[in-house]
Fold these 2 entries.
Entry 1:
Amino acid sequence: MDTYKQVIVMRKFPSLRKGKYIAQGCHASLGAYHQADKKDILYWAASGYTKIVVYVDSLEKLSDLAGDCGNANIPCYLVEDAGRTEFPVPTFTALGIGPARSEDIDKITGHLPLF
Amino acid sequence: MDTYKQVIVMRKFPSLRKGKYIAQGCHASLGAYHQADKKDILYWAASGYTKIVVYVDSLEKLSDLAGDCGNANIPCYLVEDAGRTEFPVPTFTALGIGPARSEDIDKITGHLPLF
């Protein structure tokens, strides 16, 4: 049987509280969940809601990945922090991908390091 | 109008990868979301899915908070990591609370430090 997962791509910043990273990751996770295919969500639930967290070090890479997901027709959600607390201006911070077939997501994020 | 939020309580560990914290936080967020009242979810969406991440330093405190939520009838979800990767045994790692009225959650987690 195919395995399913959700991948959270975090944009790394020179200094950011852990809690802020977690909140951004949660936005990405829930945002992508809302975009996902209902059947994929059921398969994902059956496999224990696997979540993998990786990172990139630039906005370009983050938005390229969002584009790659769009081209591959994989649901994703790009998080923009409003810039009211830790960031001085609105800032893209994370990308949630899936849940979707692991094999499909791996083509896009398989090369990224674990966070 | 009442404000709504979700609070993620992380259990702090001496050393744990950031990505592992984020994944646990996302489990807590989605798990609590699934328990939440549908109307509260709509109010929460309208207020921009506010998420606050705080921490405790022991399992006792984490499970006490889960009990407090139960007593106050606030939806919550306690995350148990299966212990297959970074933890040697199954381990409770985080508690997702709400979305629910900020005022109600604050009675339970208002004293906890930001993570």
Note: Chain B is about 45% helix and 25% strand.
Entry 2:
Amino acid sequence: MNIGIIGSGVSGLHLGLFLREHDIPVTMYAEKSAEQVAGGRLPNTVAHHHHTLERERALGVHHWDAGEYGYVCHHHCVVGTPAPAPLRFRGDFEEPSSIIDYRVYLPRLMVDYEERGGEIRIGAVAAEDLERLSGEHDLIVVAAGRDGIGAMFPRRADRSPYDKPQRRLSAGIYHGIAYSEPKGVGVHLSLGHGELLELPIFSREGFATALLFEAIPGGDLEVLADVRYDDDPHRFHAAVLEKVERHFPMLHERIDLGAFALQGPTDILQGALTPIVREDYLRLASGRYALAVGDAHCVVDPVNGQGANSASYSAWTIGEAILADYGFDERFCQRVAREREAFVLGVSDWTNMILNPQPHVVELIGAMSQNKALCDAYTENFNHPDRQWDALATPERTAAFIARHSAS
Amino acid sequence: MNIGIIGSGVSGLHLGLFLREHDIPVTMYAEKSAEQVAGGRLPNTVAHHHHTLERERALGVHHWDAGEYGYVCHHHCVVGTPAPAPLRFRGDFEEPSSIIDYRVYLPRLMVDYEERGGEIRIGAVAAEDLERLSGEHDLIVVAAGRDGIGAMFPRRADRSPYDKPQRRLSAGIYHGIAYSEPKGVGVHLSLGHGELLELPIFSREGFATALLFEAIPGGDLEVLADVRYDDDPHRFHAAVLEKVERHFPMLHERIDLGAFALQGPTDILQGALTPIVREDYLRLASGRYALAVGDAHCVVDPVNGQGANSASYSAWTIGEAILADYGFDERFCQRVAREREAFVLGVSDWTNMILNPQPHVVELIGAMSQNKALCDAYTENFNHPDRQWDALATPERTAAFIARHSAS
């Protein structure tokens, strides 16, 4: 048996490490070397929730103890409501989550993977290479991110409600922000303009804060997706601070204006993405199959911080199916699809809903501001996106969710 | 919340008891009272495998300790091969299974259910009653067996390969048969004529043996589905003994000819059934949903002894979904369908294959006769029908299954 993995992000590495734990030969096709990833531009700002950290522990790659590097809650702040002051409330996790700069995280796991006998081949893989690679492997897992080869998997219109980005993004790592107490992620919402996720990250230079601005197109925050640090750092900082002061008071009060600055010129990523769900698998001309995982399967907006967790969960599902099953035929692919469906589509449906929330979800957020048990349940469900979507899918379900967590 | 269960067989009772464990109001519509079931004709001959016994333990209704009442293996005997002598081989379970006469089992669980606050209403429920009952319950679970109201759920042609019975059946409880050593089920196969399952049962009169003849239409065993005990007990016994002597030597050698007899005139059931898979759920005119479970969802031939186990598994899945979820809408029904699919359809696909085995399955049985580890794996998979079907679905999968259990 030999498994080929195209891509070296979190899903590719978690699957590769899982397979090596079970002595299964794996070849990983990585676009960049560990050194290139470590020295590159900020690729994202990614939270790993408890279930993902548990998989890291099982693989022996939890190098950043969540008790030391992690955080324990979500601090919410909503401005722009009819209320006279911003709504501020907190939801606690049962176990900590953590955020490690992927330029620290991924290269370390690439080393782990190679030390355990995993093979890495560096270089781009194009769609036209897939048939040839399929001859070398019993199964190809496409974990190549949201661009390029992943596009071979057809879009599922039934699960892809958007045809363009719902947010314009600016993610950067900053100095000069004091952590909240208890240490948590700040979930800032400015109604009509967008969100700011304030993320306690462990970066290449140590502890810092990532700010991920999720600007609604046409809103007051959109400029942050356009203003270029490289053109004029002073103007860039001024623009960020102006928007933070106007929209995000729970962050502004913890900024040291004299120290506030982007960590470095490669610590900023601006752009936008269109959420999409693709088919789980493809039959190749060779008769073998290719499975999609991570962003090649399902791209979600980062507003809920779920993408990496969904990718890791999905990778694990594939790994367990490889161990248990007796072949890599269509039945195998259907099994993987069924086993990850509730989780991966829960992430996608929930995130798509949050981008343009229906009234019952707006009401839920209001109820959470008045009911800590409810907010804790919503927060803990960041580990259970299938359950989160169970609770959000219809007004009746959300009413039942609120009722369940409102009993004395 | 209030759940209505139509039917009082194993799936209805396991679900009802599960829900009462969690203080959920339940009304069960039973065609017969506990006394009527206890005094009636043999309804079936049903093995409960370890996973089903584990659910009984969790519910506190495991009244027949498997260590005392159960059995531990399958004794196989195949006649009619090119080999000079019958093939005889054994597969062991990791944990015991057991067979309790349902005229003992079901009435006792009906009492348990009522003692725990479950309501039972005695009387037949017809299809036209369903809409009215739906007004009284948040969810209707149809556990009413393979006739009558279950037929409201459309047949799934994609999973129902047969349009008529593949075996004609005679199930009876007999005295005068010594148990095998170790105590096990005898799986007797006479190529071209059919199977005999020799089942160590605990009956209304204590320990006895059920013989379930699975006669291929047109074969030498078919007479056993027609000969009537009530017409002439002597002729009936003579017919059974003649066929056992000719086709089933592993049983014949343990029969005490002087004591051999049907236990009593109601201890015999003859007939035939057509395997069928039906849709998981229906939307009623009320807007509420009805879920099918057990034989209302999926009828399998008894040749693998899987029907009750599948029904109980499915009932448990529904119970857990009721606890976890936030509504009884189509999403709820789809969740149940997804969560039981691999198991319930594994039972169905495996059993349908065994009735008319493809060459690779015949080869597997041959390999099992030479390889006890392989036969043990096949036997233990009576607890994991999803895995059994994983191993049988294609020739390539069966080859991989054999290879996995053939390594030194």
Note: The interface with chain A takes residues 324-327, 329, 331, 335, 338, 341-342, 387, 390-391, 393-394, 396-398, 400-401, 404 of chain B (CB under 8 Å).
